[in-house]
Amino acid sequence: MQNHRRLAQLVTRLNITDDLDEILHLITEKARDLVGAHQSVTSRTINQDWEQAINAVSLSEKYADYRDYDTEPDGSGIYTLVCEQNEPIRMTQTELESHHAWKAFGDQGEEHPPMRGWLAVPIVGAGGQNMGVIQLSDKYQGEFTQADETILIQLANVASAAIENAQLYDELRESEERYRTLFDSMTEGYCVIEKIDTTPEKEKPIDFRYMEANPALKEHCGLQNVVGKTIRECVPGDPDEWVDIFEEVVQTGDVVTFQRKIESTERVLECRVFPIEDTPNWQVGMTVQNITERVERERRLEESNQRLESFASMLAHELRNPLMIGQMYCHELPAETSPEAVEYITEAFDRIEDMIDVSLMLTTGGNAIDASEPLSLAETAREAWSEVDTPEATLRLDIDVRIETDRTYIRHLFQNLFENAVQHGGRDVTVRIGEMEDGFFVADDGVGIPAAKREDVFEVGMTTAASEGGTGLGLAFVQELATVYGWSCRLTEGERGGARFEFRNVDFLEQGS
Fold first, then answer.
1. What is the mean pLDDT of the segment spanning 117-122?
2. Which long-range contacts (CB under 8 A, 24 or more apart) does 225-231 make?
3. What is the dihedral angle through the alpha carbons of 395, 397, 398, 400, rounded to the nearest 10 degrees?
4. How far, CA to CA in Å, does 31 sit from each of 219, 225, 383?
5. In the sheet that 189-195 helps form, which strands lie side by side, from edge to edge?
6. Which of 290-326 are b and which e, b meaning 16 or more Cβ less than 10 Å from the residue's Cβ?
7. CA torsion angle 473 479 481 483 (round to 10)
8. Strand order in the sheet with 394-398
9. How far apart, in whole angstroms, are the C-alpha atoms of residue 32 and residue 199?
10. CA nearest 58: which of 88, 35, 38, 82?
11. Residue 250 pairs with which residues in a beta bridge?
12. Measured in whole angstroms, how far is the alpha carbon of residue 228 from the centre of its chain?
């Protein structure tokens, strides 16, 4: 009963410490005290690595002269059997010295306290792994008994729980330190906010209190010492906007992203508010990024794009005037002018006009499109086919739908695709236009385009049959027009090889051309 009381007292003391050295010291002293022995050693190992072992020694006054002995166990002694087998070993001195694993103390024999019988018990973790050993030698009276072994096993169980708890505390501290280091060093502001419970009787407005806030949040928002204070106490201007957003996240569980400009610093912040799961009192988190430079870059880019669009529109207008004059006088050339020359000049003017249309689309996007009208895709494709020099090629139309579009630009789309088919498939290529459930496709039976190059063909600068009357701007126009109309544009392989351009999300008006 007295030993049980002592064990209980030890557990109480161990519960108030998480220092491993102190735990081992308490275990070692208590082992010697409970059993009544002159020598006690406790070793804590990890994977039986004795070079990293932590040891605690307790000697009675009988061995006071040996208390300066500090040679650490090297894993070569009989005690390693206890760790390897995870089983207790109890021996008299005669049994110990006759055991095959007993090697005395080697070069340390004169310095090491002499042994007088031996009792060793493993410290076993919750998962069955060995965590060390408790050893006793030279009992006060008689030899070590089964009762002594039982007491030491109980003490080893207490030691195991205390060591594992200390290890968990160490891991928790390390994790907390890593979190705190990350928390404090983040360039992104972060805070945790808790809703304050307000009862209807008090008729207080909803409010939130800062639970945590890292230095970056204080810097971005221009706030100091906010932890413990409420939004209404800290946020300048109208705090209701912030409170309403936090309350929305609490009620819906959705993530809300928004921007705010801090007037005092002229900073533009992007804030992201999200629920924190499994927390009491309706806690939410918020990250804050300083996007002032990004917003300024976007503003300058928008201004640059507007200037570019204005310039492109003005340039297109200025180019069309002389072009119209040239086209008009082309029909009034002298009678002796050869028909071939007239056709060549007319085609050159038409190509310039096409280049103006395509360039305007690439620079101004949807602003280039005039009024749309219901058009038959089959009819428009025939018009485009007639403008491509493809006497040996074949066009198959397996489509009978109408869409709302701009005639000029949908004709250019087909023309570019036809020119691409001739360039890659040969002048005797067959081009097929077919209908899909949510769109249409243009496919050819040529050599196709390797998968690795299918994205590249949409880049400006990849020419498409410029030498054969095309615009020279490749398929960039095709993709841009699809984007303007909200279509998806995908290049893949056709049923008979070749290239297949698929346009999806196309709204059909009706069947029939």
1. 93
2. 226/191, 230/196, 231/193, 231/207
3. 170
4. 56, 51, 101
5. 208-213, 189-195, 283-290, 267-275, 256-262
6. bebeebeeeeeeeeeeeeebeebeeebeebeeebeee
7. -150
8. 394-398, 430-436, 439-444, 499-504, 488-493
9. 61
10. 38
11. none
12. 31
Which has the closest alpha carbon to 319: 354, 347, 363, 346?
354
Reduced to 3 states, what is the DSSP secondary structure of residue 273? strand
Model pTM above 0.85: no
> Percent of the chain at pLDDT above 90?
19
What are the tens digits of pLDDT across the range 485-500? 889 998 888 777 788 9
Token pair in block for residue 498 = 């070749």
- Enumerate residues 6+ apart whose C-beta is below 8 A from 336: none
Q: Listing from the earlier edge strand, what are the strands of the sheet with 373-376? A: 373-376, 401-405, 510-511
pLDDT digits (tens, 9 = 90+) for 405-446: 888 778 888 988 998 888 877 778 899 999 998 999 999 988
Q: How far is Cα 137 from Cα 114, in angstroms, rounded to an integer?
A: 9
Helices (H), 79-145: 79-85, 93-98
Q: What single DSSP character describes residue 128?
A: S
Q: Which region holds residue 104: left if phi is over 0, alpha if psi is between -120 and 50, else beta?
A: left
Q: Is 224 helix (H, G, I), strand (E, B) or coil?
A: coil
C-alpha 357/C-alpha 412 separation (Å) is: 9
d(CA 123, CA 53): 13
CB proximity list for 363: less than 8 A, separation 6 or greater = 308, 309, 312
Burial 188-198, CB ≥16 within 10 A → b, else e:
ebbbbbbbbee
Please give the sequence-ordered ranges of beta strands (E in DSSP) within 46-187, or none if there are none. 54-59, 89-91, 118-124, 130-139
Lowest mean pLDDT among 98-107, 146-155, 287-296, 501-510: 98-107
Gap between the Cα atoms of 271 and 256, Å rounded: 8
Q: What integer pLDDT is reported at residue 61 of this predicted model?
A: 93
CA distances from 26 to 33, 48, 138 (A): 10, 22, 19
* Neighbouring-strand partners of residue 289: 270
The string of pLDDT tens digits covering residues 56-91 is: 899 999 998 888 877 777 777 888 888 899 999 999
330-352: average pLDDT: 68
Closest alpha carbon to 164 in 119, 120, 130: 130
**Among 286, 227, 236, 280, which residue's Cα sits nearest to residue 261?**
236
Phi-psi region of 385 (alpha: psi -120 to 50; beta: other; left: phi over 0): alpha
